[in-house]
């Protein structure tokens, strides 16, 4: 029985450390895997400009304050498809405004791959 417990604990420890190693390779949310802005990578540039230490860049369809997500060899970022002038909604009572919701249909918003 004791041998089974030791095996179970060792298996659990290996699985947990394997998960931590995988999490450090990705940058899944704002300020990194641990929300502290620290990377385990070495040899990173200390300064950059529009031309210095830039490996690639892409123009977005519109301004975005989104944080890039790095997962494996892919980078994800959200951006509006185009910039449109803001218009005030027509006067409505407060109850009607509360009922307005964006579409949750996955096909309603196009996904652009760059």
TrEMBL record:
This is Pyrrolo-quinoline quinone. Residues 79-114 are annotated as: Disordered. InterPro entries: Quinoprotein_ADH-like_sf.
């Amino acid at each position: 029985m004791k041998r089974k417990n030791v095996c179970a604990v060792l298996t659990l420890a290996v699985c947990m450390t394997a998960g931590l190693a995988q999490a450090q390779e990705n940058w899944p949310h704002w300020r990194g895997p641990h929300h502290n802005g620290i990377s385990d990578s070495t040899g990173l540039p200390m300064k950059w400009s529009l031309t210095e230490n830039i490996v690639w860049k892409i123009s977005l369809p519109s301004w975005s304050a989104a944080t890039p997500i790095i997962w494996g060899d892919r980078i994800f970022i959200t951006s509006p498809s185009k910039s449109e002038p803001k218009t005030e909604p027509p006067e409505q009572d407060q109850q009607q405004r509360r009922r307005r919701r964006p579409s949750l249909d996955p096909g309603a918003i196009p996904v652009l791959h760059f």
